[in-house]
Specification:
- This protein is of the alpha/beta class.
- It has a domain at 65-138: Nucleotidyltransferase, domain 5.
- 29% of the residues lie in helices and 14% in strands.
- It contains three helices and five strands, in the order H-E-E-E-H-E-H-E.
- It has a five-stranded mixed beta sheet with strand order 3-2-1-4-5, with no helix packed on it.
- A hairpin with a 2-residue loop joins strand 2 and strand 3.
- One of its GO terms (biological process) is protein transport.
- InterPro entries: ExbD.
- It is a single-pass membrane protein; Single-pass type II membrane protein.
- This is Biopolymer transporter ExbD.
- It comes from Brevifollis gellanilyticus.
Length: 143
């Protein structure tokens, strides 16, 4: 009987690296193709203030002209009564007389939405941006 004192050599398993690389490339292509790339959505657009000199303004800011809607659904442009159908023409003449005129809307809490839509349509027709006309809600008993 013969004793073999040398340990048997086990064959080293061969791992096929080339086929693993192929599988990794296929997975990478799959993930790239199925991934959705989303653009960053801006929730709110704001214009940050800019100042050439920190302290003063170039000219005193003009007071805003008001479009007022009373509880009786009467319409006034800067204190003068105006018909809602003629509001666009009045606003155009105001804009022609003063191109830098600023407006604000003062409406009663009971003002119907239909009247507000007519006012906004008149603002657009006369060249004013609705976003530049802040709305003030007038409460009963407030002047």
């Amino acid at each position: 009987m013969q004793l073999n004192l040398r340990p048997r050599r086990r064959p080293v398993p061969a791992i096929p690296i080339v086929s693993l690389i192929d599988i990794m490339v296929i997975l990478l292509i799959f993930f790239i193709a199925t991934t959705t790339f989303r653009e960053k959505k801006v929730q709110m657009k704001i214009n940050l203030p800019q100042s050439q000199t920190m302290g003063g303004t170039e000219a005193a800011e003009e007071a805003r002209k008001t479009i007022t809607v009373t509880p009786n659904k009467e319409l006034f442009l800067d204190g003068s009564p105006v018909n809602v159908d003629k509001l666009a023409a009045e606003l155009k003449s105001l804009r022609a007389a003063n191109p830098k005129a600023k407006l604000e809307l003062q409406a009663d809490t009971e003002t119907p939405l239909g009247m507000l839509v007519k006012i906004w349509d008149a603002l657009r027709a006369s060249g004013f941006s609705i976003n530049d006309v802040p709305a003030r809600i007038q409460r009963p008993g407030q002047n």
